[in-house]
Write a structure and sequence with these properties.
- The chain is built from 10 helices and 28 strands.
- The chain is 17% helix and 32% strand.
- A hairpin with a 6-residue loop joins β21 (401-403) and β22 (410-412).
């Protein structure tokens, strides 16, 4: 057998795994560090302005008292509109864009001078300002300009100021996130207690041609909040929008918020948040499609009686209405209303106006109206002439007493208010079933008691329906916010 010779590899000492990893790491090129940590780099690239100390004295002023010129002033207001406009610049220290922020306060409602708002050009480079409609903000600036000839000014904001807090220590923009009590700067421009706001109209009137009125305003409540939608435009720009459902007591509409303004809807609540929108962009189809333009002014939850009434109206819609609301005994003094020396004759429009102006006040008066429709025969054929609720379930019958199917107890029924159709006068209309009738009022209207009504023959009911139709009636009524409906105390032929 031939002798075996050692291999070349046997003359070298084998390398350990640690030495092999060291060789591999030595072959990987490394870039020299700059000595800064990742947190320090993030703080330098995206600074957060948490504190600011003014270097001079600033005079506190209202927006209505501002005068164009150079002066260190500070003022407070709420964001009524804003747009984000980006700029294209290759300079490393240049601003990346600015926010056009319209800020208004309630000084325009307290003074004669017409400065409802001021437009602020808030420049930014690395700081992202989270703006929301209705947000309370404070501004410190050293100059205010007259913006009549400026492309950045609007009719609602004739004054302009430009600030860059990241580069200029003499100006500052503060958002009151934790110190907003929801009361300051809430009164709309031109509003007076007990008076109608100039230019205010219903949503139906806006759709029927009110959009052509200069400085027209609509008061609406948020009905629904859609989901945010992201898409890419034809120019390759990413956009975001959200659709907000709006309504009042006359019609419904939708409001579209784009890009940065879409985040404002995150704090709104359906059937609770009320918006006063001045000069909105519009497109009228089957319903109104609203948007924000440069002239639009938005007040979120304004401090006014109409807003309180609309919010209460929206809250009532969320609750299921009683099929036959009981008459509120002890709330109205019927004898005082009928025997008083001063007897006031209202119209339906005046009742509506008075209830909005003083929602918490109880008042009584007279209405001269015409009933345009009766449904006595129809409801008798459907066995729905009498009704009430028991155990939360509506109960209908053509008898005075019926048995509840839930608790098997005998329940007393009252006359169905739906037998009276729309009630009108020269100024307005009350829908069917929206009145609360007393027992005395039913007997005076129908000329018989409830027991006699259910015992009447179909022929007699048909004659009664034709006899009462389109006659002039005088209602003795009462209104209370706790009742929520117009109560008919007595009826006079």
């Amino acid at each position: 057998m031939a002798p075996s010779f050692p291999s070349i590899q046997s003359f070298f000492r084998p390398k350990s795994s640690a030495e092999e990893s060291k060789v591999v790491r030595s072959r990987i090129p490394t870039e020299p560090g700059d000595g800064f940590t990742a947190d320090e780099m993030e703080q330098a690239l995206h600074p957060i302005i948490k504190s600011w100390t003014p270097r001079q004295e600033y005079e506190e002023m209202d927006i209505a008292s501002l005068i164009p010129g150079t002066k260190a002033v500070t003022f407070m207001g709420r964001v009524a509109n804003f747009f984000d406009q980006q700029t294209q610049s290759k300079m490393p220290n240049a601003a990346k864009g600015f926010n056009k922020v319209v800020v208004g306060d309630e000084s325009g409602a307290l003074t004669v001078r017409y400065h409802p708002a001021i437009l602020i050009r808030l420049w930014y480079a690395n700081v992202n300002y989270t703006l929301l409609l209705g947000q309370l903000v404070s501004i410190w600036t050293t100059h205010v300009s007259a913006g009549e000839m400026s492309t950045f000014s609007t009719p609602n904001a004739p004054l302009v100021t430009s600030i860059f807090p990241e580069r200029d220590n003499s100006c500052y923009f503060m958002i009151h996130e934790n110190s907003d009590d929801g009361v300051q700067c809430k009164t709309p421009l031109g509003y007076r207690d007990g008076q109608e706001l100039p230019g205010l109209m219903t949503l139906r009137n806006f759709m029927d041609g009110g959009f052509d009125i200069m400085q027209g305003k609509i008061l609406v409540c948020v009905k629904s909040i859609g989901s945010r939608k992201k898409f890419v435009t034809k120019k390759g720009r990413e956009c975001e929008l959200i659709n907000i459902g709006l309504f009042d007591d006359t019609a419904e509409a939708s409001l579209t918020l784009w890009n940065s303004t879409a985040f404002s809807a995150s704090s709104w609540k359906p059937s609770e948040t009320v918006l006063l929108i001045s000069s909105p962009g519009w497109k009228i189809d089957r319903k109104a499609h609203l948007s924000l333009n440069g002239n639009t002014h938005v007040d979120v939850d304004p401090c006014m009686a109409d807003a309180d009434w609309l919010r209460a109206f929206a809250q009532r819609l969320t609750k299921r209405e009683h099929v036959n609301q009981p008459f509120p005994h002890g709330v109205f003094d019927v004898e005082a209303a009928t025997t008083s020396e001063v007897r006031i004759l209202f119209t339906i429009a005046e009742v509506d106006e008075f209830a909005r102006a003083a929602p918490g006040e109880i008042f009584m008066g007279y209405l001269s109206v015409i009933i345009t429709e009766f449904q006595i025969v129809l409801l008798h054929q459907r066995s729905m002439m009498m009704c009430t609720e028991c155990c939360g379930v509506p109960l209908f019958a053509n008898t005075i007493v019926a048995k509840c199917k839930q608790c098997s107890q005998e329940v007393t029924l009252a006359i169905n208010p739906k037998i009276v159709g729309p009630v009108i006068d020269e100024t307005g209309c009350i829908s069917s079933g929206k009145l609360v009738w007393s027992t005395e009022a039913w007997e005076q209207l129908l000329g018989r008691t409830a027991q006699q009504l259910v015992e009447a023959t179909p022929t007699l009911l048909k004659y009664l329906e034709h006899r009462l139709l389109l006659l002039r009636y005088t209602f003795v009524f009462g209104w209370s916010e706790d009742v929520g409906k117009l109560a008919v105390l007595q009826v006079m032929m």
